[in-house]
């Protein structure tokens, strides 16, 4: 991985700069407000798509896209049954669009209907064998079930057809799956000379490699904007939880996964992945 000029999604989505290490976190009131705004945005998306669907003015691909838009926002609101229904309607209208099968697969995955998720992902791969997102979700579905060796393979396949950011994250997931399977992390990071090694997601890889401590890792996880901070913390805490699991520190892992969920950033895969890890930890504890 030669070029690590990756900017965290919080910066891309919010247009904000990540603060220098040590920047004071936004206050609690600002964070609560940011969560409310995120949720309101998803609800507004549902309402806008519903108006298009119910207007009777659109047919074909335009109507399918409206169902898809509503389904995506329903999924972000954690209403998976309605999301699945909307994606199914989109598929019925435009059955050769792989995006709709992938969307439904993710909703099935979040609803813990793993077999149905696999079926839809196979449909996507039948239409496009190198589809990065479908391969990534195949890896995540295997990981959710504790099948770490297949998960590692799917993430590795995904890395080969990914863009720069997707490749970086894919290799992080390859490393996570390998470590959970009891193998050594395959990460071998080299950053260009003079590049700031605090730039995301280099700290994640260095944490998983053991090159930096959790304290050093967390010191690089600040953002000035409340929404950017929540998005950053969702990822930071999820990967910190994974680190603690590889060390056998289940209580610390549980705390980190809970912190990731507490951000309320439901449109990040790390949000649901953290939920899944909490489910597995709870099942083991019983």
Structure commentary:
There is one protein chain. This protein is mainly alpha-helical and 286 residues long. Helices cover 70% and strands 0% of the residues. It has helices at residues 9-14, 28-55, 60-76, 80-93, 98-110, 114-127, 132-144, 148-160, 164-180, 202-209, 214-218, 226-246, 250-262, 269-285. Helix 6 (114-127) packs antiparallel against helix 7 (132-144) and helix 13 packs antiparallel against helix 14. The chain is globular. The termini are far apart. Mean pLDDT is 88; it is low at 1-22 and 190-194.
Number of helical segments? 14
Number of strands: 0
Low-confidence stretches: 1-22, 190-194
Q: Which H/E pattern describes the elements?
A: HHHHHHHHHHHHHH
Radius of gyration: 19 Å
- In one word, what is the shape? globular
First-to-last CA distance = 41 Å
Biggest sheet: strands, sense, closure? none
Residues in β-strands, percent:
under 5%
Which features would summarize this protein structure in a list?
286 residues; mainly alpha; 14 helices; disordered N terminus
Q: In terms of topology, how is this protein built?
A:
Blueprint (H helix, E strand, L loop, with lengths): L8 H6 L13 H28 L4 H17 L3 H14 L4 H13 L3 H14 L4 H13 L3 H13 L3 H17 L21 H8 L4 H5 L7 H21 L3 H13 L6 H17 L1
Helix pairs in contact: 2-3, 2-12, 3-4, 4-5, 5-6, 5-7, 6-7, 7-8, 8-9, 12-13, 12-14, 13-14
């Amino acid at each position: 991985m030669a070029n690590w000029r990756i900017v965290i999604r919080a910066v891309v989505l919010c247009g904000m700069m990540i603060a220098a290490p040590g920047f004071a976190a936004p206050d609690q009131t600002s964070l609560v407000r940011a969560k409310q705004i995120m949720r309101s945005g998803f609800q507004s998306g549902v309402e806008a798509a519903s108006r298009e669907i119910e207007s009777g003015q659109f047919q074909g691909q335009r109507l399918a896209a409206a169902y898809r838009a509503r389904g995506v926002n329903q999924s972000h609101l954690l209403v998976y049954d309605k999301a699945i229904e909307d994606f199914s309607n989109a598929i019925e209208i435009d059955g050769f669009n792989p995006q709709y099968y992938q969307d439904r697969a993710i909703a099935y995955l979040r609803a813990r209907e793993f077999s149905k998720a696999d079926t839809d992902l196979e449909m996507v791969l039948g239409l496009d064998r190198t589809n990065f997102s479908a391969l990534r979700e195949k890896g995540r579905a295997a990981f959710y079930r504790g099948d770490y060796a297949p998960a590692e393979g799917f993430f590795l396949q995904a890395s080969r057809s990914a863009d720069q950011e997707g490749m970086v994250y894919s290799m992080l997931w390859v490393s996570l799956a390998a470590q959970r399977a009891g193998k050594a992390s395959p990460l071998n990071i080299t950053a260009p000379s003079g590049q700031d090694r605090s730039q995301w997601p280099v700290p994640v890889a260095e944490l998983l490699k053991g090159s930096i401590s959790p304290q050093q890792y967390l010191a690089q996880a600040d953002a000035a904007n409340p929404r950017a901070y929540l998005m950053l913390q969702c990822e930071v805490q999820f990967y910190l939880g994974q680190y603690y699991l590889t060390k056998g520190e289940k209580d610390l892992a549980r705390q980190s996964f809970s912190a990731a969920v507490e951000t309320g950033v439901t449109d990040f895969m790390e949000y649901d992945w953290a939920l899944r890890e909490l489910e597995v930890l709870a099942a083991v504890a019983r």
